Amino acid sequence: MSVLVNKNSKVIVQGFTGTEGSFHAQQMIEYGTNVVGGVTPGKGGSTHLGKPVFNTVEDAVKTKGADTTIIFVPPAFAADAIMEAADAGIKVIIAITEGIPVKDMMKAKPYVKKKGAILIGPNCPGVITPGEAKVGIMPGFVFKQGRVGVVSKSGTLTYEAADQITKAGLGVSTAIGIGGDPIIGTSTKEAVQLLMEDPETDAIVMIGEIGGNYEAEAAQWIKENGNKKPVVGFIAGQTAPPGRRMGHAGAIIGGKDDTAIAKMRIMKENGIFVAESPAEIGEVMAKALGVDA
Q1: What is 95-142 written as a DSSP string?
Q2: pTM value?
C-alpha cells in the first residue's frame, strides 16, 4: 500500500521526446518505474527510449491502460495537457511545469476535479514511493523505503527531509511534492489526508513555506481529526520580509498569518512537532516516534 503511485502504476510522459521529458523519463525507467510510453503530438507510432510514442493521451490509455501521467509541457500548453489527461481518464496527473498562467490553472483545476482525477503540481518535483515508483524529478537514491510520509511545497526541502529521515534510521513511505505555484491541484491538507489514511504510513513530515494558508488549514484538520499520527512540521522563509516574493510564485507574505513564525505557532497549537531548521527534521521525527535517532 502506498499513496498515488506504486509498482502497479502505468505511467506515461507528456512531452516525452523533449529535452526535459527525455532526461527524466530515462531516470524514471532506470529507477524501475513502470513507464508504458509517452505522448508527443505528431510523433505517434515511433519509439523513444524503447517505449512507444502516442499522438494523444487517449491513445496511450486505450493501448497501454495508462493511469498516471507526468507532464513536461511548456507553460503555454501545459494546462491543456492537464485537461487532456483528465479527459482521457488518467487518475493521477503530475505536472512538473513551472509558470503555467494563473488564468489557465483556474480553468484546469476544477476540470480535473470534475473528472475525478488527482492533480499534483504544477511546479512540483513529483511523487515517489521508494523502491516502487518515481514519477518526478527527484534524485531517487536519497529516498529509502520506510513508514514516514512526506508532504512538501519545496522540491529541495523534500530531498533534505528524506535524507534527514534516512539518517535518523527511518525511511519514507511516499513523498509528495505538492508544488509552489499560487494555484496547485492538491493542497497540503489533502496530501496529508492521503497519508493519514494510508495503513503503511506511521508518521508524516509536513514542509511548508511563507504565503497562503495551506499549512494552517492542514494543522487544524490534523487536530480536528484527533492527531492520529505524529506530524513534524517545518516552515521555510523565516527571514523573509513582508511583501517580497521568495522563490516560489506562491511564497509571498500577504497577512500576519502568512509569516513563518505565525505558521509555526499555529502548527504547535494544533499538536504538531515543529523543527526549527531542516537539519532537525530527522531528530524531531525520531523523538515524535519515540525511537533513537
Answers
A1: E--S---HHHHHHHHHHHHHTT-EEE-SS--EEEETTTEEEESS-GGG
A2: 0.94
